[in-house]
Write a structure and sequence with these properties.
Layout lengths: L14 H28 L11 H8 L7 E3 L6 H6 L3 H8 L33 H15 L5 E6 L6 H12 L4 E7 L2 E2 L2 E2 L20 E5 L3 H16 L5 E6 L19 H8 L3 H11 L5 H24 L15
Parallel strand pairs: 1-2, 2-3, 3-7, 6-7
Antiparallel strand pairs: 4-5
Helix pairs in contact: 1-2, 1-9, 1-10, 2-7, 4-10, 5-6
Length: 330
Amino acid sequence: MSAGQEAGRKPTLSKPELHEMLRRMLRIRFFDEHATRAKSKYIPGFLHNSIGQEAEIVGACMALRKDDYMTGNHRSHGHPIGKGAEIAPLMAELFGKSTGVCRGKGGSMHLAAFSVGSLGESGIVGASMPAAAGAAFSAQIRGTDQVCLSFFGDGAANCGPFHESLNLASVWKLPVIFLCENNGYAGCTAQAQTTAIKDIASRAAAYGMPGIIVDGQDVLAVHEAVSTAVVRARSKQGPSLVEAKTYRYCDHQEEEAGFPVYRPSEELDAWQLRDPIELFVDRLRAEGKLTASEMRDLSLEVQTEVEAAVELAIRAPVPESAALFEHVFA
């Protein structure tokens, strides 16, 4: 959260903070692009990319403090990156290597980075929402002013954990922000085919909390909306539901052979005209906060960082068989 943010005030961001926003958005984009290229040779299992959704991830995460909590979902490479986690251990986890954040046992859908408050992700749709409520409850009973940010998709909004988590969070006034990444599709099924309402945020009224709709391609708009929800949560006023209207440019998962064409090409073209990184770069340039040389330097810095993470992941050892017996209860 920026220094100029207080209740009732629009958050202000310095030039270094704006550049850090762009840096994290580029990290997510380059990370997923490199992961896609490595998928067939190095990465086992499923791979769900966030390309196109960088703005809502980074805008939300940068409204938090480092000691705040966060939970993700199956499309979650970007979430710990947005929270500031180192990318080399994240990439190694995708490769199933022992240097990964979960020692190679979690993979793409189960990243966790406790150093930045990322409590983990889940391939089970909606499963991390009760965990987010639990983390917020922990902060409440310990008397800290930490909050928890819960990422989930529009598909998860139709699952039981969504309703249970929002209801309990509202009853107990838990310091949690529920952020719906509404990219319009649950797998390959359009939202209109599964959801009777247009806006997920309208469900907030049923649970007595604010419901905010924000342009998910605008990183500053997301940052402002989530910052407002964070202030509310820290001041013990309870949870909020933020719906970021966004879009994923990739398919549901990489190499999903056999899936029918489920998105009109014109729809994808229209959303690509609103690329979140390009929109942000254009805005910074127009406001005199990013020069061409600064953009080149940022791009080169992040590209070099991601390429190094890939090389480290390739060379890292796989877990030894004894690792099967680590971190088990019994």
